[in-house]
């Protein structure tokens, strides 16, 4: 039962264009969403997050949009750069036993072509 | 900067061996997590801990146990390694905050069980 889904395993985008990565979730109790970026042979690093009470959060080239009614999250990268090539994971937070727990999606491999 | 270190980057073990994976964080974080990452499955939570000597099962705890004797150290134990435990193991830590909580990941341990 995959509560957080990233239906596109890979995406290729031309340098300078917009990259849009999507994430769908099923649990309406998730209260916080995050995007992580992962390079090969490294651990994931935090990129951007959004609370469930907001619908948009922006940080430089990165913007996360949340559509609660559709249970859909997206990450926009504009303009895309070759250094953005990595695997991107979305994650959703829930509370278990009084502490926070994260559910991760399966990841989308982004390739930005120079 | 938060630093999460894992004892080994690469490990090769034989079926039936007892395997210890160590994780240390230097930011006095309350929460620590063990995940495994597999192609097409994303990051799946094995165990987490929200305090010394406290542990909670994640989504796939079978075949694993954990130990947290000190706040900075969280160990994952494979009691009797099997080939289906060949994977990338990622440790993470976080300080529980309602807003802007993020997890900090170690570089990962790639385990091969023969």
Describe the structure.
- The complex is a heterodimer of chains A (114) and B (114).
- Chain A has strands at 4-5, 10-14, 19-25, 32-38, 45-51, 56-59, 62-67, 72-77, 86-96, 99-104, 108-113.
- Chain A has 114 residues and is an all-beta fold.
- Chain A has one domain: Immunoglobulins (Immunoglobulin-like).
- In chain A, strand 4 and strand 5 (45-51) form a beta hairpin.
- Chain A is globular, with a radius of gyration of 14 Å.
- By secondary structure, chain B is mainly beta.
- In chain B, 0% of the residues lie in helices and 53% in strands.
- Chain B contains no helices and 11 strands.
- Chain B has strands at 4-6, 10-13, 19-25, 31-38, 42-49, 56-57, 64-70, 73-78, 87-94, 104-105, 109-113.
- The model of chain B has no long low-confidence stretch (mean pLDDT 92).
- Classes of the chains: A mainly beta (114), B mainly beta (114).
- The interface between A and B is medium-sized, with 28 and 29 residues.
Question: Averaged pLDDT of chain A, please?
Answer: 93
Tell me the span between the first and last alpha carbons of chain B: 37 Å
Largest sheet of chain A: 6 strands, mixed
Tell me the structural class of chain A. Answer: mainly beta
The multimeric state of the shown protein is: heterodimer
Beta-strand residue percentage of chain A: over 45%
Keywords:
heterodimer, A: 114 residues, mainly beta, Immunoglobulin-like, 6-stranded mixed sheet, 5-stranded antiparallel sheet, 59% strand, B: 114 residues, 7-stranded mixed sheet, 4-stranded antiparallel sheet, 11 strands, 0% helix, 53% strand
List the helices and strands and how they pair.
The complex is a heterodimer of chains A (114) and B (114).
Chain A: E1 4-5, E2 10-14, E3 19-25, E4 32-38, E5 45-51, E6 56-59, E7 62-67, E8 72-77, E9 86-96, E10 99-104, E11 108-113
Parallel strand pairs in A: 2-11
Antiparallel strand pairs in A: 1-3, 3-8, 4-5, 4-9, 6-7, 7-8, 9-10, 9-11
Chain B: E1 4-6, E2 10-13, E3 19-25, E4 31-38, E5 42-49, E6 56-57, E7 64-70, E8 73-78, E9 87-94, E10 104-105, E11 109-113
Parallel strand pairs in B: 2-11
Antiparallel strand pairs in B: 1-3, 3-8, 4-5, 4-9, 5-6, 7-8, 9-10, 9-11
